Amino acid sequence: MIEPDHGIEAVECAEVIYRALKKAWSRDEQIAPEAFIRRVHEMEAEEAVSCFRRKFVTARECRLKLRGMPAAASLHVGRIRDLPLGIDVKPDPVAGENSVIVEPGHCLLINLPDPVGDSEAAEFAASQLVKIARSVSQAQEELEHMERRGAN
Amino acid sequence: MSTISVAAHAAGTYQPSLYASTMEVGSLPVDLSRRTSRLDSDKSTEAGQAWTSWDSPSPPESFHAFCTEVLQYNKEDEDDQIAQNARDAALTLTLNTYASVPNKWRSPRIATDGGGGVRLTWKSGDKEMRAVFPASSRRAHYLYSEQGEGHSMIPNFTAATLSQKLDWLLSK
Hints:
The complex is a heterodimer.
Chain A: E1 16-21, E2 40-41, E3 44-45, E4 49-53, H1 59-65, E5 71-76, H2 77-82, E6 88-91, E7 94-95, E8 101-103, E9 106-110, H3 119-132, E10 134-135, H4 138-149
Antiparallel strand pairs in A: 1-4, 1-5, 2-3, 4-9, 5-10, 6-9, 7-8
Chain B: H1 30-33, H2 61-72, H3 84-100, E1 109-112, E2 118-124, E3 127-133, E4 142-147, E5 150-155, H4 159-170
Antiparallel strand pairs in B: 1-2, 2-3, 3-4, 4-5
């Protein structure tokens, strides 16, 4: 049973977050900048980029939550905040029925530049995030999952 | 069935629906097909293999493989689709680039922007270049390039600009 207030607390600099990667975003274990650009629908960009906090979710769980993405990238929150771009991570737990939090690990990469209004800034910010992101290998993913969730 | 032709479209005029999504490899224009050795060489961008190869000149079939990958991209993942508008714009511009400087062509990494747009990325050393073709025709396509901390962006770029930027990318 998940505690109702889990996931609301601020994301600490020592935390690690995971970003699920599509097939085209993770070839040869190279992370594509597209992973850190706000998605655009017609002329409007989404507000933020979805991620998951490692304190709640393993890399495997992160990628499987989003229709079985093939890979995940990890980022240290402190290193994100160290970038001189104002990018931050804020908790965004997902509530289900009766406002009970069912997905405490969900969080958002915020203050990313708007790719519609300032494409150049959005591309540059994505480049900076790629530099500090690490692709989670299959072996690392299995080890982490085994340690935290057990063989099953 | 629709086909594409270097000669017919070298002027860079945009023609909607020029490229049929059902287009097969064998239906690509004869002038491109003649530059192609075999179909099994057209897999250089699949998972597990390098998506760019800058150490040696890219063979002419690289462009053919690129066209094939763009045309067949939507078969890979139903949740990650390229819009027809973006696909046509990307293929028209790259075709004109290839037609003008075929020996400088290098196949980019192909991805979507998550909203139907096409993103082409070339990388060489510390240089990187991204050609972005949004799904919405109301947004301009653009060419972003960076080297180290320096970066620039050219909106509404042409094939000539992409050719020059490929030169820049390949230069030491």
